[in-house]
UniProtKB/TrEMBL annotation:
This is MaoC family dehydratase. Residues 10-122 form the MaoC-like domain. It comes from Sphingopyxis jiangsuensis. The lineage of its organism: Bacteria, Pseudomonadati, Pseudomonadota, Alphaproteobacteria, Sphingomonadales. Pfam families: MaoC_dehydratas. Coiled coil: none annotated.
């Protein structure tokens, strides 16, 4: 499904994205090493077992990236000019290998662009939710989106 244009959004629009993703050990290992993150909680089974979590903790930046990625097809695919920023990022619950994540998005603000009359700024509240219905990641994303006309 293609993303929507700026003039197709209204404040309060809420989407539950169809795509879900079960996080694998390979996802966590590749993302963690690819980003040069040496945190033992993500890479060392014995260190993770000795932690309060008792198991490998999935890299939070992977969780954040996955949350945004799950939303793209329904929000900005083909209509995005640029992401302008991510604000109020929180990770209230940990993600573990084998967790299945889904995402929701709500339009919380719309703003005309002063410098680009052919686009406007949409602010989304994205949430990643695990199979236990716990919010594991949340942020606001401001995106410069093309107008339809």
């Amino acid at each position: 499904m293609a993303g929507k244009f700026f003039d197709e959004w209204t404040i309060g629009d809420t989407l539950t994205h169809d795509i879900r993703r079960t996080v694998t050990e390979t996802d966590n290992l590749l993302f963690t090493t690819m980003t040069h993150n040496p945190q033992p909680l993500h890479l060392d089974v014995e260190a993770a077992k000795a932690s309060e979590f008792g198991q490998i903790l999935v890299n939070g930046t992977f969780t954040f990236s996955l949350m945004v990625g799950l939303s793209v097809g329904d929000t900005t695919l083909g209509t995005l000019v640029a992401n302008l920023g991510y604000d109020k990022l929180v990770m209230p619950k940990p993600v573990f290998i084998g967790d299945t994540l889904r995402a929701t998005s709500e339009v919380i603000a719309l703003k005309e662009s002063k410098s680009r009359p052919n686009a406007g700024i949409v602010t989304f509240l994205h949430k990643a939710i695990n199979q236990r219905d716990e919010i594991v990641c949340q942020c606001e994303r401001s995106a410069l989106i093309k107008r339809k006309d």
